[in-house]
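One such given next:
>
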Amino acid sequence: MVNSGFFSTDKPLKSRKVSFRIPYYTQWGQNLLICGSDRLLGSWNVKKGLLLKPSHQGEELIWSGSIPVPPGFQSDYSYYVVDDRRNILRWEVGKKRKLLLPDGLQDGQLLELRDLWQTGSDNIPFRSAFKDVIFRTSWSLGVERTLGITQNKLDQDGSVILQFRICCPYLEEGTCIYVLGSSLNLGQWKIQDGLKLVYAGDSFWQADCLMGKDDFPLKYKYCKHSKAGTSVECGASREISVDVTTGESRFVVLSDGLMREMPWRGAGVSIPMFSVRSDADLGVGEFLDLKLLVDWAIESGFHLVQLLPINDTSVNCMWWDSYPYSSLSVFALHPLYLRVEAISENIPEDIKQEIREARVQLDKKDVDYEASMATKLSIAKKIFAREKETILNSKSFQEFFSENQEWLKPYAAFCFLRNFFETSEHSQWGRFSEFSKEKLEKLISKESLHYEVVSFYYYIQFHLHLQLSEAAEYARKKGVVLKGDLPIGVDRNSVDTWVYPNLFRMNTSTGAPPDYFDKNGQNWGFPTYNWEEMSKDNYGWWRARLTQMGKYFTAYRIDHILGFFRIWELPEHAMTGLCGKFRPSIPISQEELESEGLWDFNRLTQPCIGQELLQEKFGASWTIIASTFLNEYQKGFYEFKDECNTEKKIASVLKLSMFVESEEKLRRKLFDLLQNVALIKDPEDPRKFYPRFNVEDTTSFMNLDQHSQNVLKRLYYDYYFHRQEDLWRDNAFRTLPVLLNSSDMLACGEDLGLIPSCVHPVMQELGLVGLRIQRMPSEPDLEFGIPSQYNYMTVCAPSCHDCSTLRAWWEEDDERRHHFFQAVMGSDELPPDQCTPEIVHFFLRQHVEAPSMWSIFPLQDLLALKEDYTTRPAVEETINDPTNPKHYWRYRVHVTMESLLDDKDLTKTIKGLVHGSGRFYPQKDLESGQATGEGLAKLQLGSELPSGTQTNGLSNKEAVAFV
């Protein structure tokens, strides 16, 4: 990247030459090219870009190319990885590069741009979590013009001008940037004689330096210098060699990326919004309670507060709606989190008394979802009736409505129609079943009989927006990152499926194959996405979602990030998650099977049910089961009747049947029969097939001949572990960058489960922070993860909302507890049955000391540091049970945030853990009241990262991080 003030000269300009050079490893058949805004670089048409040539220089693969350019040439440009036909395989993440010819570049002289490939991790310091929160400063830098080099020096044969260019996103006031190096011009490693850089804008610092033939090869490093001392970037020295034997004068721009420093590492707390308890709430956590949670986080040494999804989920108007991942609308906030006391300054005394009484009645051990919702909406309607004209006509409401009407209008209409028809199943709404803007505008018009009901939902969303915005701004000012959650799906009876039915595959359902959470897989019930349709407007629906989230959050968790590579797709009639297929994926074709000698497709795709199997499963009652659900199509062999040939049909028949055995046990056994197949036929193409997950566990597979078993085993492992990798990688590179570029929030991906090998390289390339849970190691040969070996680009946590808490996990399995006590804690003694505060302290210390960018702890695990907070049975602190699709999400912390703020012993203990780990912690600035990052490590020349620390998967000497 070149500054227009690079050099000073009065001589006329002629034709010039620009060369590009970048180290980058490619796979066979891949090439690197440059494409830019000027026609010489293709006018952003990659097919016409400048194709680079590879060469090996030492251990590096260098791509280079050059073009002659006219005087005054300038262009934006980026690097792309393409195949032999110039189809884009990958592109750089981050801002486009800028190329401006220096004023002093003369005919016959060369401008050489030495770049580094920009990955998503390079952009992390510019995400709002860091830029606007953690490293938010009250002072600003002015752009300085770099000093030019006199022309007579430039004319010397073989002279080289280097422009050093480094990105340093955070500097304490009064700090300067220098280059130190082996040459005399760089001070020969002495700070007082080093080259001082000037600020060039956008967190970049640069300076020019004239070098002679004897200065190469040159070694150098960047450093920070202030009154407090000097900190030199860590890792090995940077090196540059220039071929000066040609006698050619040249300008070399060194775009050196980020300054290499001790990686910034922080800690945080996670808790669902509904679980927070305060003195002011009505039976459930409320957005304004976040201010108390932020205060407690700061007192405990945390820089982050993480929540579960907070969108409206009121699909069924009952406790099932407590499931926070089943969105009624991906834009609307949940009325559950409204503080009714705060929506007006003129609440009459009778309503205030009603609120006080409700606060006492709803102050229960767990969340009473239905009672809390009903109470809040009832009180809100009374206040709305008094002030609707004032609020709806106010300037602030009009601005909110104007900015949000695209989703707000259909949301309010949906809520009205849901209540009017007493169902969210919009296929039952008569003429409103199919959405149209004309019908919508007529329904919500001010002349409509229903306008007051519709506008009530505007009113609720307006106040939810105000309250969450207040809490979010409070967190920003205090230096605390507020982290949201992006659910992978939406409810099939939602505003989004009503308004945009073309974006969803409504005859399917999403889930996950069998994993740590459930051996039968998971069925979430959401329709899968029609990615092909979404791509037509460059994924506008997703971009709008992320833009909306960015109004409140500065970081977010992408739920089930694997869904952006591939999703586990189930037929709509499935109830479990076992018999699915990946979408997209390359199926096994009928021709492929026939070439392997497999011909009997009915045998492979239909449940294999013999009399012996029925007797084994159902004992003496097998004949009754057979007569109810099955037909005997061959002596001793059975098939399901048409009215019982899906999981949902079986469940319906069972509800009407009178069997001695419990309905749940019978359903499980019948589902086992239905799932006893070797292959699953594609419902849209009968000549395509998919291997049933864990096929070797089925009797259908076991009863096949040896040849058929061998073929199916080979095809199974190919389908699940090999043939899809390129397809899934390309799919992720099409979709995930759209999310990342839709906002400047820091993005983290929940990458648990069956992880394809392409996932982590893609996440690293895009700068996505992964998740590590110690009890669910991503390494197949480990029983427990090793936090000290985690990659820097991760969030590490001892537990999460989808599994049991530390206490519950410790206490539920004696054998596993013993293994952990011996293998991880290094003790041969018998472990205690209870998870004592000392054991909790060990767990937490492991995680705060991990190299991960973030250590985030569920609040329940932090409370377990003190015996006073462990009187409640540990099992009651679990937030979700993934094996139960009708789980009631209702956990409430049993102590108020006000009480926790008063508990100085607990916050002192937690803060001690954070401070002792080398993690950064908030330190309140007494003048500004702002929480700032403290604990910046001062690195001396030649120092390296701590042993075991990794950044972006690189070794210590290669680590590139940021402060």
In short: The mean pLDDT is 91.
